[in-house]
Design goal:
mainly beta; ten-stranded antiparallel beta sheet; five-stranded antiparallel beta sheet
Length: 307
Amino acid sequence: MATGNGYILGAVQVGNNVIPGVSNRTLNSGIQRQTVQADGAVAPRASYISNISPNMSFSTYNFDLLASIGIMGRAISDTTGGAAIYVNQLEPNASVYAGTNHTKYYIASGILYAQNLQVATDGSADTQFILNTASKPQVYPLVETKNVALPALPEIALFGMGPSFINGLKAETKSQLSIDFGLNVQPFKPDGDVYPWWHYILGSQPVTTITFYDASLVDDLGITGAIDTQATAIFLRKRVDGGEYYPNNEPVHVKITFQGDTNFMQLAGGSDNNLSTTTYQINHLIKDGNTTIPMTFTKDVIIPDTM
């Protein structure tokens, strides 16, 4: 029976770890219903459910999860603790209940992978993740548990934009940076079953897009670009809580490295009374293997002046 209480989506847990700094989370039932219109009737005469594939998406400012699962994602299974999202119940004329009034949705099987990472010059980097559920026993893959307590929330570490090196050149004056990990994830749902048994990664086409203010970089990088002979390296600077950044020579920052890149100018533009910008796109190629993606994430590094 409805109680008239308000709720908000809360913490996300992967395995035994609560992911810090989660925002913009959604939980989708994944139900697809088909209708049948026949016999000249104007309205549908029958309907059926053809697919049930609940999914969850969320963003996080934290890099532990991305460094842990990498670009190829991670299989979620009951043996490794599954995954869960909490729904926090709100107390009337107050905030979140302090007791065990909350709900937990547990996912025993599926695949978790990163969709994109983005950061602006005055913002903090965040990564968007997707979790697609699977259920070979053909049972609903979200297990609801009511009247649970909320987990303790770990501390948040924030990272802002740092220097980037493209083919050995230090690319400065960036305003925005994004990485689309480009995974092609397809469900495996044979035999007329409603729930996907599992999911397969059929391809990956990672692309980095960087927007600069300095138009002279076109002279160095070229309009048509080139195949890089050196790795592309992107640094994210760790923020001091309540302050600015940690010094570059302290080993607390994040480094993202790509091998086998092609870069080219995507567009340049501007308008009256606004600074013009130039956008470069970097396509990351795979040259030496069927399963290895040439992208690495390294935490706790210093930021160098040159590469």
